[in-house]
Amino acid sequence: MKISIIGGGFMGEAILKGMINSKQFNNKDISVIEIDKNKRANLAKYNIETFDDYSQIMNAQIILVAVKPQQIKGLLNEIKKEISKSALIISIAAGTSIKSIKTILNQQSVIRVMPNLLAEIGYGASVFTISEDVSQEEINITKKILNSFSKLVLQVDDEKSINAATAIHGSGPAYFFLFIESIVQAAMSIGIKHDDAKKLAISTMIGSGYYIENSEMSLSDMQAAVASPGGTTEAALKILEENNWQQLIEKAINGAFVRANELSEE
Asked: Which end of the chain has fewer CB atoms < 10 Å from its terminal CB, N or C?
């Protein structure tokens, strides 16, 4: 099955790398269309064909669109007469609805995917939803592609759910980066060296994630297990609670969700 990836930038390369490293795809069946010659040169290490135009796109059974949201409508208008009507369109453009894609491409089957930054290291999370005319075979091959660069793949019922998930896993890495940065700065303020603070914060975050993943305890019980009465953790958690920590997080995530919905309507 011929797969054409449009866009060889950060996410396009992350997807390509995952597919190649999974050894479930033949390099000869994958091509990338990228107009930037430097990016094309960078992709040579994957031993796949690259193009700077759409002359070969008619041969693709799957077209994976990995361009920026502001570029996708112009791109679709440019390729609509070049692609096969039976080709599956997989779009990772944030905020671009299935309806808007089908309006341009008419009868095309469309799957909308929201991956995240962690795809670069093969530890991403990808959430997807489908148009009504997508077949089970097309769902299966999409899952195969997504699993090549994702630790978690979820299919949801509609695009509102995609937008909600975007506020969690799509934007989520930035939340954790900010939290770690804040911990590092706080650690430095009490005398810990920057590099040591960063190592401590990262190790604690990774270990906590593994602990959550492998424990049957509730998150509340986990907090209680660390926070001894009258101890240091209890003192810290009390300050977070007094400053409406949970309400602030909820407000931030809701803000991301509202913006995702707005982008889908533009």
From this structure: C
CA distance 162 to 26: 30
Domain boundaries for CATH 3.40.50.720 within the chain? 3-160
CATH superfamily of 172-265: ProC C-terminal domain-like (1.10.3730.10)
0.85 surpassed by pTM:
yes
Neighbours of 224 (CB within 10 A): 15
For 3-160, CATH number?
3.40.50.720
* pLDDT (tens digit per residue) in 169-209: 999 999 999 999 999 999 999 999 999 999 999 999 999 99
Tell me the H-state helices in the chain: 10-22, 37-43, 69-79, 98-105, 136-147, 159-165, 172-189, 194-214, 219-226, 232-242, 245-265
